[in-house]
Amino acid sequence: MDTLQNLETESPEFFRSLLENSGEAIYRFNLTTGTYDYFTQACESLFGYPVTEFLNANVENMLSYMHPGDYNKFKSHFDNLTNQAENGNFPQVLEYR
């Protein structure tokens, strides 16, 4: 993960291009503010909602977009993130269906 963080710092344009051309739904959630900082444009085509709608959402709003079969996995992961954030230890990836 350090390599990605260095890439983001040293070459933000390349990093953003890499993310946007991945075709994957990638986002960044800020545990401090409880808001989403970033969504790839692929989220719009994959989920059918404008990226701005996701950026203006909080976690509770995002649950309404989620497949019911993913709710418990997401909720468990989110609770784990918030608990670990207090210790500065963050799991980085969660895959959904």
Short description:
The chain is mostly helical. 51% of the residues lie in helices and 9% in strands.
SSE inventory with pairings:
Elements: H1 2-10, H2 12-20, E1 27-30, E2 35-39, H3 42-47, H4 51-55, H5 59-63, H6 71-85
Helix pairs in contact: 1-2
Provide an overview of this structure.
Helix 1 (2-10) packs across helix 2 (12-20). By secondary structure, this protein is mainly α. It has helices at residues 2-10, 12-20, 42-47, 51-55, 59-63, 71-85, and strands at residues 27-30, 35-39. The protein is built from 6 helices and 2 strands; from the N terminus they run H-H-E-E-H-H-H-H.
Highlighted features:
single chain; 97 residues; mainly alpha; 2 strands
Q: Report the C-alpha radius of gyration, rounded.
A: 14 Å
Q: Based on DSSP secondary structure assignment, what is the total number of beta strands?
A: 2
Helix proportion range: 40-55%
| C-alpha end-to-end distance | 23 Å
Strand order of the largest sheet: 1-2
Run of helices and strands: HHEEHHHH
Q: Determine the strand fraction and express it as a percent band.
A: 5-15%
Continuous helix count: 6
pLDDT averaged over residues: 81
Q: Uncertain segments of ≥5 residues (pLDDT<50)?
A: none
Structural class: mainly alpha
Based on Cα principal axes, name the global outline. globular
Largest pleated sheet: 2 strands, antiparallel
